[in-house]
Amino acid sequence: MRELSHRRRMLVLAICCMSLLLVSLDNTVLNVALPSIRSDLHASVSGMQWTIDAYTLVLAALLMLSGSTADRVGRRRTFQTGLVIFTLGSGLCSLAPNLEALVIFRMVQAIGGSMLNPVAMSIITNVFTEPRERARAIGVWGGVVGISMAAGPIVGGLLVESIGWRSIFWINIPVGLAALLLTARYVPESRAPKPRRADPIGQLLVIAVLGTLTYAIIEAPDRGWDSPLIATCAAIAALGLLTLIRYERRRAEPLIDVRFFHSAPFSGATVVAVCAFAALGGYLFMNTLYLQDVRGLNALHAGLWMLPMAFMCFVCAPLSGRLVGARGPRPSMLVAGVAITASGVLFAVFDAQASDAGLLIGYVLFGLGFGMVNAPITNTAVSGMPRTQAGVAAAVASTSRQVGQSLGVAVIGAVLAAGAASAAAGGMGHAASPAAAASFVDAARPAWWIIAACGAVILLLGLVTTGRWAERTTRHAAALFEEGAPTGQTSANAKA
Fold first, then answer.
1. pLDDT at 91
2. Which one of 28, 70, 261, 444 has the lowest number of neighbouring Cβ atoms within 10 Å?
3. Quick one: residue 125, left, alpha or beta (phi over 0 = left, psi -120 to 50 = alpha)?
């Protein structure tokens, strides 16, 4: 691909950011609308979880397939296909007659969404080849998440209160069409010189593992952890994971290439992505229910309460991108780990939600932490790897995000469903009784500890995977790709 002018690169970045805004705004808007959807479609807590996790599960399962497909058939072509499917799925969601249909249409959205963010990141990686410029571009990319977090609750609250929850899907249609037209005009086509072959067995195993694990977590509070169905799903997930690892190690061109994981920074970024987005998914889900069901706020006022968190994310994401470009990923990851841990502990130990000031401080800390963590995840995942593998590397990082968000919503939703059924049953627009509010707060305490633990893992990995030893493992992993070493023969060379 020929070198593009600075202006053209900025335009490509803006178009790619539109796809991220499309997907991120959809998620944040949906969270604000959950109580309204529950009331209209008569959904349970697990039903609300499925409206989120049906999307993130399909997204996580297909991201790596989409990344490798884009490397093979063309990144712009795959990106355009994703925009068409996502926009169509959004229109279908707005027409859903019941919860089951909404969940199915969310899955259609996810099929399109899987072709957007990782492919867009691959496009950015191939357009911005200079490391510092790429880090800044990724910082802008991360800032779009902050924009969506800031705009989503407000836009969602206004739409839900004035028109209804179905209108939250309408906003995707004009943005999707605009991105489609601009992509055709300005985004250059690119492919990997030696793309990998499809891996249908690996793909099916990924779907089986993610689907059965999430189903078990979400449905266990209603069916019981000793239910034969839940036990069977858990066993299938465990067996599927073991089979997937064994199968992928033997393939010459696997869906999940273990050579990436010989890089300590890449492996660390994968785990950090899971932890950060598990914390985010659980945080948004839990606070949406708390603000609307316990505090009795409407969708708009609940969105306004989340603005401090969104504002901090918006400010810190591009700052983190510049910091990564200048100082590497360690400072951003350390700040993120400390801030997310502090936010979780503030709620778990000091009952921050008991006062407006405490709630505000907790939101600011979480927004600071999440805003700082996104740029080092993405930059670490693609830095040091061959550009020909950019689509796959970016897809693994994006998959980790979606897996984390799915697990965060599933686990924290299960905690709330098991321990705060009375609080979760509060009506829209009416504050819960003191007993129900206390029940919700008590049930949420373990969930806050889970979020604090996620922050602690981010902090630890920020220390361990950003030193000189970690850099040597990245160079070693890149060399394995350049040598074309078969996956199954790399285990003997794993030491840096």
1. 92
2. 261
3. alpha
